[in-house]
Amino acid sequence: MFSITLDRISLKQIAGSGQCFRWKALGDGRWAVPVYGAVFELEQISPGEVRVRTDAALRAEALMRAYLDAETDYGAIFAEIDPDDAYLIAAARAGRGIRILRQPLWETTASFIISQNNNIPRIRSIIARLCGGELAPFPPAERVAEMDEAQLRAIGCGYRAGYLLHAARQFADGDEARLPAMDRMNARAHLVSYKGIGEKVADCICLYGLGHKDAFPADVWVKRILASHYPQGFSQRTSRFAGVYQQVMFEYERSRAMPAGKAGGHAREA
Question: Exposure pattern of 233-250 as b/e (b: 16+ CB <10 Å)?
Protein backbone atom coordinates (compact mmCIF):
# COMPACT_ATOMS: atom_id res chain seq x y z
CA MET A 1 0.00 0.00 0.00
CA PHE A 2 1.20 3.52 -0.75
CA SER A 3 -0.21 7.02 -1.17
CA ILE A 4 0.09 9.53 -3.99
CA THR A 5 -0.26 13.18 -3.05
CA LEU A 6 -1.01 15.73 -5.77
CA ASP A 7 -2.10 19.34 -5.93
CA ARG A 8 -5.45 18.24 -7.38
CA ILE A 9 -7.13 14.92 -8.11
CA SER A 10 -10.72 13.60 -8.02
CA LEU A 11 -11.20 9.90 -8.68
CA LYS A 12 -14.93 10.49 -9.12
CA GLN A 13 -14.36 13.12 -11.82
CA ILE A 14 -11.78 10.99 -13.62
CA ALA A 15 -14.04 7.92 -13.52
CA GLY A 16 -16.90 9.87 -15.11
CA SER A 17 -14.81 11.78 -17.62
CA GLY A 18 -15.15 9.42 -20.58
CA GLN A 19 -11.42 8.68 -20.69
CA CYS A 20 -11.61 5.06 -19.57
CA PHE A 21 -14.20 2.30 -19.37
CA ARG A 22 -12.88 -0.24 -16.83
CA TRP A 23 -12.92 1.56 -13.50
CA LYS A 24 -15.30 -0.18 -11.08
CA ALA A 25 -16.86 1.78 -8.22
CA LEU A 26 -16.48 -0.03 -4.89
CA GLY A 27 -18.16 2.62 -2.73
CA ASP A 28 -16.77 4.90 -0.04
CA GLY A 29 -14.54 6.73 -2.51
CA ARG A 30 -12.85 3.53 -3.70
CA TRP A 31 -12.35 2.27 -7.25
CA ALA A 32 -10.96 -0.96 -8.68
CA VAL A 33 -8.74 -0.18 -11.66
CA PRO A 34 -7.44 -3.05 -13.80
CA VAL A 35 -4.33 -1.86 -15.64
CA TYR A 36 -0.83 -3.15 -16.43
CA GLY A 37 -2.01 -6.72 -15.87
CA ALA A 38 -2.92 -6.06 -12.22
CA VAL A 39 -5.82 -4.64 -10.22
CA PHE A 40 -5.20 -1.45 -8.25
CA GLU A 41 -7.64 -0.27 -5.60
CA LEU A 42 -7.64 3.53 -5.50
CA GLU A 43 -9.17 5.33 -2.53
CA GLN A 44 -9.82 9.06 -2.27
CA ILE A 45 -8.39 10.08 1.12
CA SER A 46 -8.57 13.84 0.65
CA PRO A 47 -8.89 16.27 -2.29
CA GLY A 48 -5.18 15.83 -2.96
CA GLU A 49 -4.40 12.31 -1.75
CA VAL A 50 -5.08 8.87 -3.20
CA ARG A 51 -4.26 5.65 -1.34
CA VAL A 52 -3.33 2.68 -3.53
CA ARG A 53 -3.54 -1.00 -2.70
CA THR A 54 -2.41 -3.68 -5.12
CA ASP A 55 -0.82 -7.11 -5.39
CA ALA A 56 1.16 -5.92 -8.41
CA ALA A 57 4.83 -6.79 -8.50
CA LEU A 58 7.75 -4.35 -8.52
CA ARG A 59 7.37 -0.75 -9.74
CA ALA A 60 3.70 -0.52 -8.73
CA GLU A 61 4.07 3.01 -7.40
CA ALA A 62 5.99 4.23 -10.45
CA LEU A 63 3.40 2.67 -12.77
CA MET A 64 0.48 4.27 -10.93
CA ARG A 65 2.18 7.67 -10.79
CA ALA A 66 2.67 7.49 -14.56
CA TYR A 67 -0.93 6.34 -15.08
CA LEU A 68 -2.29 9.25 -13.02
CA ASP A 69 0.03 11.71 -14.79
CA ALA A 70 1.39 12.63 -11.37
CA GLU A 71 4.40 14.58 -12.60
CA THR A 72 2.32 17.15 -14.53
CA ASP A 73 1.50 20.45 -12.84
CA TYR A 74 -2.16 21.02 -13.71
CA GLY A 75 -2.17 24.30 -11.80
CA ALA A 76 0.38 25.62 -14.28
CA ILE A 77 -1.72 24.33 -17.19
CA PHE A 78 -4.79 26.20 -15.97
CA ALA A 79 -2.71 29.30 -15.30
CA GLU A 80 -2.22 29.56 -19.07
CA ILE A 81 -5.95 30.06 -19.71
CA ASP A 82 -6.79 33.43 -21.24
CA PRO A 83 -7.94 35.55 -18.25
CA ASP A 84 -10.76 36.95 -20.41
CA ASP A 85 -12.17 33.45 -21.05
CA ALA A 86 -14.70 33.34 -18.22
CA TYR A 87 -16.28 30.08 -19.37
CA LEU A 88 -13.03 28.11 -19.48
CA ILE A 89 -11.91 29.54 -16.15
CA ALA A 90 -15.20 28.35 -14.61
CA ALA A 91 -14.80 24.95 -16.27
CA ALA A 92 -11.25 24.59 -14.94
CA ARG A 93 -12.46 25.47 -11.46
CA ALA A 94 -15.28 22.91 -11.67
CA GLY A 95 -13.02 20.22 -13.13
CA ARG A 96 -10.01 20.87 -10.96
CA GLY A 97 -9.79 17.18 -10.00
CA ILE A 98 -9.47 16.00 -13.60
CA ARG A 99 -6.19 14.52 -14.79
CA ILE A 100 -5.49 13.02 -18.20
CA LEU A 101 -4.77 9.35 -17.60
CA ARG A 102 -1.81 7.90 -19.45
CA GLN A 103 -3.36 4.60 -20.45
CA PRO A 104 -1.76 1.61 -22.20
CA LEU A 105 -1.77 2.39 -25.90
CA TRP A 106 -3.31 -0.81 -27.22
CA GLU A 107 -6.03 -0.85 -24.56
CA THR A 108 -6.87 2.78 -25.39
CA THR A 109 -7.03 2.08 -29.11
CA ALA A 110 -9.23 -0.99 -28.76
CA SER A 111 -11.51 0.67 -26.20
CA PHE A 112 -12.20 3.74 -28.32
CA ILE A 113 -12.85 1.63 -31.40
CA ILE A 114 -15.45 -0.27 -29.35
CA SER A 115 -16.85 3.02 -27.99
CA GLN A 116 -17.97 4.31 -31.39
CA ASN A 117 -21.74 4.97 -31.51
CA ASN A 118 -22.10 3.15 -28.22
CA ASN A 119 -23.10 3.77 -24.60
CA ILE A 120 -21.14 3.30 -21.39
CA PRO A 121 -22.86 0.13 -20.05
CA ARG A 122 -22.56 -1.63 -23.41
CA ILE A 123 -18.94 -0.51 -23.93
CA ARG A 124 -18.05 -1.84 -20.50
CA SER A 125 -19.77 -5.18 -21.10
CA ILE A 126 -18.10 -5.71 -24.49
CA ILE A 127 -14.67 -4.92 -23.04
CA ALA A 128 -15.32 -7.23 -20.06
CA ARG A 129 -16.14 -10.08 -22.44
CA LEU A 130 -13.07 -9.33 -24.55
CA CYS A 131 -10.92 -9.49 -21.41
CA GLY A 132 -12.63 -12.57 -20.03
CA GLY A 133 -13.81 -10.79 -16.90
CA GLU A 134 -14.64 -7.37 -15.50
CA LEU A 135 -11.24 -6.95 -13.83
CA ALA A 136 -9.22 -9.41 -15.93
CA PRO A 137 -6.10 -8.23 -17.80
CA PHE A 138 -6.66 -6.59 -21.17
CA PRO A 139 -5.66 -9.05 -23.92
CA PRO A 140 -2.56 -8.05 -25.91
CA ALA A 141 -2.96 -7.07 -29.55
CA GLU A 142 -1.24 -10.28 -30.64
CA ARG A 143 -3.95 -12.38 -29.01
CA VAL A 144 -6.80 -10.34 -30.51
CA ALA A 145 -5.09 -10.47 -33.92
CA GLU A 146 -5.43 -14.26 -33.83
CA MET A 147 -9.21 -14.02 -33.48
CA ASP A 148 -11.65 -13.71 -36.35
CA GLU A 149 -14.54 -11.35 -36.92
CA ALA A 150 -17.11 -13.95 -35.93
CA GLN A 151 -15.53 -14.31 -32.48
CA LEU A 152 -15.50 -10.56 -31.97
CA ARG A 153 -19.07 -10.20 -33.17
CA ALA A 154 -20.08 -12.93 -30.71
CA ILE A 155 -18.97 -10.77 -27.77
CA GLY A 156 -21.01 -7.82 -29.05
CA CYS A 157 -18.56 -5.82 -31.20
CA GLY A 158 -20.95 -5.79 -34.14
CA TYR A 159 -19.68 -3.89 -37.18
CA ARG A 160 -16.69 -2.74 -35.07
CA ALA A 161 -15.30 -6.30 -35.12
CA GLY A 162 -13.51 -5.74 -38.42
CA TYR A 163 -12.10 -2.43 -37.21
CA LEU A 164 -10.81 -4.00 -34.00
CA LEU A 165 -9.24 -6.92 -35.83
CA HIS A 166 -7.51 -4.61 -38.32
CA ALA A 167 -6.09 -2.47 -35.49
CA ALA A 168 -4.90 -5.54 -33.57
CA ARG A 169 -3.02 -6.79 -36.61
CA GLN A 170 -1.45 -3.36 -37.15
CA PHE A 171 -0.29 -3.28 -33.53
CA ALA A 172 0.98 -6.85 -33.65
CA ASP A 173 2.91 -5.89 -36.78
CA GLY A 174 4.82 -3.16 -34.96
CA ASP A 175 2.60 -0.11 -34.56
CA GLU A 176 2.60 -0.45 -30.78
CA ALA A 177 6.27 0.54 -30.89
CA ARG A 178 6.10 2.86 -33.90
CA LEU A 179 3.26 5.14 -32.76
CA PRO A 180 4.94 6.43 -29.55
CA ALA A 181 7.95 7.50 -31.60
CA MET A 182 5.79 9.75 -33.82
CA ASP A 183 4.79 13.34 -33.15
CA ARG A 184 1.08 13.99 -32.70
CA MET A 185 0.29 14.97 -36.28
CA ASN A 186 2.04 11.93 -37.76
CA ALA A 187 0.52 9.60 -35.17
CA ARG A 188 -2.93 11.03 -35.86
CA ALA A 189 -2.51 10.69 -39.63
CA HIS A 190 -1.34 7.10 -39.22
CA LEU A 191 -4.27 6.19 -36.96
CA VAL A 192 -6.78 7.72 -39.36
CA SER A 193 -5.43 5.34 -42.02
CA TYR A 194 -6.76 2.42 -39.96
CA LYS A 195 -10.04 0.87 -41.01
CA GLY A 196 -12.84 2.48 -39.00
CA ILE A 197 -10.78 5.08 -37.11
CA GLY A 198 -11.85 8.66 -37.76
CA GLU A 199 -10.46 11.94 -36.53
CA LYS A 200 -12.24 11.94 -33.16
CA VAL A 201 -11.12 8.43 -32.18
CA ALA A 202 -7.59 9.17 -33.41
CA ASP A 203 -7.53 12.29 -31.23
CA CYS A 204 -8.73 10.27 -28.22
CA ILE A 205 -5.92 7.75 -28.76
CA CYS A 206 -3.37 10.56 -29.11
CA LEU A 207 -4.58 12.22 -25.90
CA TYR A 208 -5.25 9.26 -23.62
CA GLY A 209 -2.85 6.65 -25.02
CA LEU A 210 0.07 8.69 -26.32
CA GLY A 211 0.01 11.60 -23.90
CA HIS A 212 -0.29 14.34 -26.53
CA LYS A 213 -2.07 17.01 -24.49
CA ASP A 214 -2.53 19.19 -27.57
CA ALA A 215 -4.89 16.59 -29.08
CA PHE A 216 -8.48 17.90 -29.08
CA PRO A 217 -11.19 15.23 -29.42
CA ALA A 218 -14.21 17.14 -30.73
CA ASP A 219 -17.18 14.91 -29.97
CA VAL A 220 -20.86 15.84 -29.82
CA TRP A 221 -20.51 17.30 -26.31
CA VAL A 222 -17.51 19.46 -27.16
CA LYS A 223 -19.01 20.64 -30.45
CA ARG A 224 -22.11 21.80 -28.59
CA ILE A 225 -19.98 23.64 -26.04
CA LEU A 226 -17.98 25.36 -28.75
CA ALA A 227 -21.11 26.35 -30.66
CA SER A 228 -22.73 27.74 -27.52
CA HIS A 229 -19.80 29.51 -25.88
CA TYR A 230 -17.33 30.10 -28.72
CA PRO A 231 -19.33 30.92 -31.86
CA GLN A 232 -16.37 32.93 -33.17
CA GLY A 233 -13.96 30.04 -32.58
CA PHE A 234 -12.09 28.62 -29.60
CA SER A 235 -8.68 30.28 -29.69
CA GLN A 236 -7.11 27.80 -27.26
CA ARG A 237 -7.98 24.83 -29.45
CA THR A 238 -4.41 25.12 -30.79
CA SER A 239 -2.89 25.33 -27.30
CA ARG A 240 -0.36 22.72 -26.20
CA PHE A 241 -2.91 21.87 -23.48
CA ALA A 242 -6.04 21.90 -25.63
CA GLY A 243 -6.86 18.31 -24.65
CA VAL A 244 -6.91 19.21 -20.96
CA TYR A 245 -9.16 22.17 -21.67
CA GLN A 246 -11.73 20.14 -23.58
CA GLN A 247 -11.72 17.59 -20.77
CA VAL A 248 -12.65 20.13 -18.08
CA MET A 249 -15.28 21.64 -20.38
CA PHE A 250 -16.83 18.20 -20.74
CA GLU A 251 -16.71 17.66 -16.97
CA TYR A 252 -18.26 21.08 -16.32
CA GLU A 253 -21.22 20.38 -18.63
CA ARG A 254 -21.56 16.77 -17.49
CA SER A 255 -21.72 17.77 -13.82
CA ARG A 256 -24.32 20.47 -14.50
CA ALA A 257 -26.47 18.04 -16.52
CA MET A 258 -26.28 15.21 -13.98
CA PRO A 259 -28.89 14.93 -11.20
CA ALA A 260 -27.47 15.47 -7.72
CA GLY A 261 -25.98 12.36 -6.17
CA LYS A 262 -25.53 10.51 -9.45
CA ALA A 263 -22.15 9.21 -10.63
CA GLY A 264 -20.99 7.59 -13.81
CA GLY A 265 -19.84 8.46 -17.28
CA HIS A 266 -21.07 9.38 -20.70
CA ALA A 267 -19.78 7.97 -23.94
CA ARG A 268 -17.79 10.57 -25.80
CA GLU A 269 -19.78 10.12 -28.99
CA ALA A 270 -18.48 11.19 -32.40
Answer: ebebeebebbbbbbbbbb
Q: Are 141 and 174 in contact (CB under 8 A)?
A: no
Does the predicted model carry a pTM greater than 0.85? Answer: yes
User: Is pLDDT above 90 for 158?
Assistant: yes
C-alpha separations of 138 from 64, 108, 128, 208, 233 in Å? 17, 10, 9, 16, 39
Catalytic residue among 24, 195, 200, 213: 200
Rounded CA-CA distance 207/83 in Å is 25
Q: What is the pLDDT of residue 30?
A: 97
CB 32 within 8 A of CB 26: yes
State how far the Cα of 2 lies from the Cα of 42, in Å rounded to an integer.
10
Among candidates 21, 46, 26, which has minimal Cα distance to 107?
21
- DSSP-assigned beta bridge partners for residue 33: 40
Can you tell me the distance from the alpha carbon of 34 to that of 240, in angstroms, rounded to the nearest whole number? 29
Torsion angle of C-alpha atoms 228, 184, 23, 13, degrees rounded to 10: -40
Give the residue with greater pLDDT, 197 vs 120.
197
Instruction: Say if residues 209 and 198 touch (Cβ distance below 8 Å).
Output: no
User: Is 195 designated active site?
Assistant: no
